[in-house]
Amino acid sequence: MVMRLSDVTTLRIGGPVDTFIEGSLEDILPKIEGDLLVLGGGSNILAADEGFSGTVVRDSSREVAELGGSQFRVDAGVVWDDFVAYSVDRDLSGLESLSGIPGSVGAAPVQNIGAYGADVAATVVAVRAWDRDINEAVRLSRADLKMAYRDSILKRSARSQKWGPTGRWVILSVDFELVHSAYGFVRYAELAKKLDVPVGGQAKISDIRDAVLGLRRSKGMVLDQTDHDTWSAGSFFTNPVVTRAPDGAPAFQTDGGIKVSAAWLIEQAGFPKGFSMGGQVALSSRHSLAITNRGGGTAHEVLEMARRIRSRVKELYSIELQPEPIFVGCQL
Questions:
Q1: CATH for 228-328, options being 3.10.450.50, 3.20.20.140, 3.90.78.10, 3.40.50.620
Q2: Which of 35, 42, 125, 308 has the most other CB atoms within 10 Å of its CB?
Q3: pLDDT tens digits for 215-250?
């Protein structure tokens, strides 16, 4: 049976792969030459309709090890939300606002995943990674990773044609440091409102997790095989950081400038929730940042819509939206 990337990605788009291997990364990686794509949950990927001519590897490692205190070493193949649930069940705060994000632990520092006022960089101590340049395992500290908004040195290396979609370093495990507490801080206005606490206030981490999952479900951002609004790669564009926000745009100050809502820019540019260009791809009916597959959609259609949105936003606001997913065999 031919493996297709549409079978292993949440967008359910992508053509055949030459080779598919599932197992321990440390056993597999030393033997692989050529183009490589390491898959976790396949949740942040747009793959070409023509497929991928290299090797696709899915990590089977699933161990969570206690290092002492509140530090944990987690294999890259562990499902991200399973580890979040593990931490919340043990009254360990730090990850609760990141509940419901699809994918694996290994992908978390690559993307520096974040939501509802939190990002994973705050809890990552270091990673153990396979360096494809020297063909051996290395340790990279949080400082080495250079994590920024939805970015890291790991993700930046994947933009090089030399390394392909997975990049130079392949995460083997991640060391986290959490906080022994049943309470966590609420830093996002929408979440604070749902929990009925002030922004910057505290709530039980179990309540924060439940609230985040509820908010994500309401936006079609929790995977559901029967709901086409969830057939996406998550948010397709990052929120741009600018020196001056457009009039009326939801925005807030960050260290690097003013972060503007990409969803607002998209909707103001004439692309409301549910927008379609007539094919099998449309914006989610609940979340204008998600480009969704309505069944039988293609990468060509996704790219066509993304280019149209990007072009119109740039024309109106002189802001060029940056894509969040990893592109496999295609470009925006």
A1: 3.90.78.10
A2: 42
A3: 999 999 998 999 999 999 999 999 999 999 999 999
